[in-house]
Amino acid sequence: MCEGENYIFVLHTIFNHPLKLLKSVITNCKPINLKKLTLLFLILAVCSCKQTSSHKDKLLFANTTFTPNRPPLNRNLHKYIKYKSDTLALTHVTIFDGKGNAAKHDQTLIIINGHFYEMGSTSEIKIPSHARVLNAKGKTIIPGIVGVHNHLHIPRFPFVGETAAKLYLASGVTTIQTCGAASPEQEVLLAEQIEKGNAIGPNIITSGPYFTGINGNPNLIIPKNEQHIRDTIQYWAAKGVRWFKAYRNVSPEDLQIIIDEAHQQNAKVTGHLCSVTFEEATKMGIDGIEHGLNSTSDFRKNKTPGICNGSREYIDELEINSAEVKKLQQLMIDQQAFLTSTLAIYEASIPERAFADERSLEAMSPYLVSQYQERRKNYEHQSSPDSIRLKRLKRIMEFEYQFYKMGGTLTAGVDAGRHVLPGYGDQRNFELLREAGFTKQEALKIMTSNGAQVLDNPDIGTIEKGKKADFVILEGSLENSIRNIEYVFKDGYGYDPQQILSTVKDKFGLE
């Protein structure tokens, strides 16, 4: 090199500004020997190739909306991962995009640094030379499930987060909104750990504590006054919480304050309602309502305004396609209030349908298994099937189907409890939505892109160029079973569900 040249500077310039260095050599340097000159040109050639490659990479992402990177994972989590290539190509696969469209067959999907880069017919897509290629013929890809009523607690257990997070992810649920927290501080901490790559689980959209009212559950927030509500929301919003939930006994006055303050803090509100009707809450500006027909106090007879009372004959007698029901649903649609379906947990209360599958029993703690066995014993001693609750399930389905077909935003979540486990219950929701009359594409849209929509997250929920590579590979067709999960991808990392599930046996319900 040139005499007296600073070698650190030279190396930096070689790799970052090779042409600038060449010009400097030509104009400023003393004569150098042929070997050194040859070496210099070899270095420049390599660097130029590197720059050309870098330029191509920049062009590669020039027409996309994302930054090509993904969060790193703690090495302790690598044991759960089957695929972690920066560039991955899945060929000859069937894809449901999550937007309600029919499946596309014999597709190639390219993922780069945790994002969807390209998809199209296998015969037309050019695969990057450095990609890891997986022949996915006979397999189906769907977006990762976005659950919006997916607690990290169950009755008696205020926090089951770590085990629940594993169950969710292994079942294809890649994002959850917890829809009310019994232990909000622990939720926030777990969400942060997952975001930092120090724990596995879905992306967790956290909730604040529940708000209720007089005669409500004493373990929830029963507001003392307006300032109590505002202080509570501001406290949790400062910790990153963006969802709050109103519960059955909340007063109309308090609910209005909750909605107003949450919106001021860029947060949203949903409700499991009773004291306040769907119509009243919608007109107040609530963002979403949970459970559907089962919680619609609008049609209760002898209901006192602002009180959770009145008779429930409506659930058996109301004409779902009546003008008054459609008027209520249209109001929700006009005000952009979404409705969340929780069919699996309702089904769990119907004796002739309340059966746990083998995989759920394997994950449940001995205590939860004993509770399940006791319930089954009681059901079997009943003299006749509970046809009333079964008919109610059908009517709840009809209410949700009509809301969706009218143009409403229907979402879904497991609302885990009894023998309905996180993740497994989400899969059961898909099957029950199909039973309700939805097509495969519609049921997927409800459970993926609709969830992303209400979470205001355009980066998830569908399989489209530029979005996060959160998706599920099913063995075989979606028609056969959404339970046949081979791999779950989150941020482009391919997790092995069986490896995850091997760590949760007998543990759900121990925390």
Would you report the number of β strands?
Answer: 17
Instruction: Bin the helical content.
Output: 25-40%
Distance between the termini: 66 Å
Q: Please count the helical segments.
A: 18
Portion in beta strands: 15-25%
The chain-level structural class is alpha/beta
Averaged pLDDT, please?
89
Describe this structure in words.
The structure is a single chain. This protein has 511 residues and is of the alpha/beta class. Helices cover 38% and strands 16% of the residues. It has helices spanning 7-16, 18-28, 34-62, 161-170, 184-195, 226-237, 252-264, 278-284, 314-317, 323-334, 343-347, 358-363, 366-380, 387-405, 424-435, 440-447, 449-454, 497-501, and strands at residues 81-83, 87-95, 104-112, 115-121, 132-135, 139-143, 145-147, 173-177, 203-205, 243-246, 268-271, 288-290, 338-341, 410-412, 471-475, 485-490, 493-495. The strands form 3 sheets. Strands 1, 2, 3, 4, 5, 6, 15, 16 and 17 form a 9-stranded mixed sheet that branches. It has a 5-stranded parallel sheet with strand order 10-11-12-13-14. It has a 3-stranded parallel sheet with strand order 7-8-9. Helix 6 (226-237) packs parallel to helix 7 and helix 15 (424-435) crosses helix 16 (440-447). It starts with 6 loop residues before the first helix and ends in a 10-residue tail after the last helix. The model is unreliable at 1-32 and 46-67 (pLDDT under 50).
